[in-house]
Amino acid sequence: MLGKDHRRTRVANAYYSLFMAIGNILGYTTGSYSGWYKVFALALTPACNISCANLKSAFFLDIIFIAVTTYISIVAAKEVPLSSSGALPVEEAAAGESGTAGEAFLWQLFGTFRYFSTPIWTILTVNALRWIGWFPFLLFDTDWMGREIYGGEPNEGPNHDTGVRMGALGLLLNSVVLGVTSVLLERLCRKRGPGFLWGISNILMAVCFISMLVVTYVANNIGYVGKDLPPTGIVIASLIIFIVLGFPHAITYSFPYALISTHIQSLGLGHCGQD
């Protein structure tokens, strides 16, 4: 669908980020709501308190949506069967070609490495380092809010649960910025260029992660941790970090792939099946 149009590649990645942001907004809205145990009353049991019931209810919703979207995908995607003329039975074809196809794929995948130029290796390295930074944030962001900002511990009082819900709110706002940025990416690219924006997003991402350390240090030195709820200023500062990270988050899901596609096609490696 994209052919060799680099602009369409950027637009496609931007729309991917946009719809992912919409899904994230709905998901984090679910996580920030504390009354799911009333909707799914059976989730609340003597062995599962309110926080557990809310989490269990979120998984119930997840299962429902996965089932619905899977059904839609199966029904909407019409596969065209192979022509019966000259074709082997499915079992024989799979037995005879699966190994060859797998070896050819791996050979093509690793064989292209020797054609990679310095810019391609630079993009791959920077993208790998970015994801090393993203994974701890995406895994522990709500727990950071519950432990370091609200001073709570899991299953020990309401502070941790409140902090986790506030972290989910921060991720919701992060997804809103991600979606808005995705819509504006093409216009920003035309004005500043993808390389410049990617570099700015790397710097902004690093500043935000350092800011998390600063906010944690300030929160621990104020002296409210373990005694009271955090001051409004600390909560607002934490949410601002979540919000600002929405911009580099959108860049992460768009620019590296578009830049790699541009360089790969310039080397003539865009159609491995024909090379």
TrEMBL record:
Any one cellular-component term (Gene Ontology): vacuole
Organism whose genome encodes this protein: Glycine soja
Pathway membership: Glycan biosynthesis; sucrose metabolism
The protein's name in its UniProt record: Sucrose transport protein SUC4
Cellular compartments annotated: Membrane
UniProt entry keywords in alphabetical sequence: Membrane, Sugar transport, Symport, Transmembrane, Transmembrane helix, Transport
Recorded family membership: Belongs to the glycoside-pentoside-hexuronide (GPH) cation symporter transporter (TC 2.A.2.4) family.
GO molecular function: sucrose:proton symporter activity
Membrane spanning stretches: 12-29, 59-77, 197-219, 231-251
UniProt-listed InterPro entries: MFS_trans_sf
Its membrane topology: Multi-pass membrane protein
Stretch forming the signal peptide: none
Superkingdom field: Eukaryota
Lineage: Eukaryota, Viridiplantae, Streptophyta, Embryophyta, Tracheophyta
